Write the structure tokens for this entry.
Amino acid sequence: DSPGRRDITLTLLEFVIKNYYPQFHQLPTIQERCEAFFRELTLRTARMIAGWQCVGWVHGVMNT
């Protein structure tokens, strides 16, 4: 288990999903909602980084 307040993390995730990704809020369990959100976030980040790399810009943090 991760350190910290898991209840606060889940509350924040629920808020973000409900307000910014309502298509995932309809899924029946918190596990499914979080997995869908994580997949979407990963996809969006990968597309953003790929776009930056296409124009030759790469930040040092993204090289790791």
Q: What stands out?
A: The mean pLDDT is 87. Helices lie at 6-20, 22-25, 30-54. Residues 30-54 form the longest helix (25 residues). DSSP finds three helices and no strands in the chain.
